[in-house]
Amino acid sequence: MYRLSLIISEVFNKYLPLADQAKVQLNLDFSDTTQQVAHPEAVKHDLDQQLSSALQHTVGGEISVAVTNRAITITDAATVLSPAACALLSNRRVTVKSRTGFGTTITIQLSTPDRTESPASTDPQPAPKPQSRSRSTPTKTL
């Protein structure tokens, strides 16, 4: 386990000067600094990638980063992305939603969601059994 506050601090401080240059106010709401995560590199990568994208797409305004016990949420009220862009930025851990008048919200899950699919949907179909070319007479029972 790794302290989430170290990841948040490193990535947030990396983007503060870039936000200042772009005239974007960067806010952080993180109350539980003792929280830990199991996959720090994945969380750091996702946060870095999504915060970079948010700063590239916003023109002025404000970007907020909020951390809860389950997710990191990046909110940018000044940017609206197309459904195609949202789909490209989303993945198993990251969900991007955008709507005119509300801006863009990026949610990074801190634990990977469990996939509860039926075995039939995840397992490949078994190969059909080869049919015999010889004919046999079926046995009849009375």
User: Residue share in helices?
Assistant: 25-40%
Along the chain, the helix and strand elements come as EHEEHEEHEEH
Q: What's the arrangement of strands in the largest beta sheet?
A: 2-4-5-7-6
Number of strands: 7
By CATH, the topology is Heat Shock Protein 90
Q: Count up the helices.
A: 4
User: Structural class, from secondary structure content?
Assistant: alpha+beta
Using the alpha-carbon principal axes, give the shape. globular
The rounded Rg comes to 24 Å
Shape-level CATH architecture: 2-Layer Sandwich
How many domains? The number is 1
Sheet with the most strands, sense and barrel status: 5 strands, mixed
CATH homologous superfamily descriptor:
Histidine kinase-like ATPase, C-terminal domain
CATH class: Alpha Beta
Which percent band covers the strand fraction?
Answer: 15-25%
Mean pLDDT: 81
Low-pLDDT regions: 113-142
Give the distance, in angstroms, between the N- and C-terminal Cα atoms: 69 Å
Any overview of this molecule?
There is one protein chain. The protein is of the alpha+beta class and 142 residues long. The protein has a single domain, classed as Histidine kinase-like ATPase, C-terminal domain (Heat Shock Protein 90). 33% of the residues lie in helices and 25% in strands. It is built from four helices and seven strands. The chain has helices spanning 4-21, 40-57, 83-89, 119-122; strands spanning 2-3, 25-30, 36-37, 62-67, 71-76, 94-99, 103-109. The strands form two sheets. It has a five-stranded mixed beta sheet with strand order 2-4-5-7-6. A two-stranded antiparallel sheet has the order 1-3. Helix 1 (4-21) runs parallel beside helix 2 (40-57). The longest helix is centred in the N-terminal third of the chain and has 18 residues, at 4-21. The protein is globular, with a radius of gyration of 24 Å. 18% of the residues are buried.
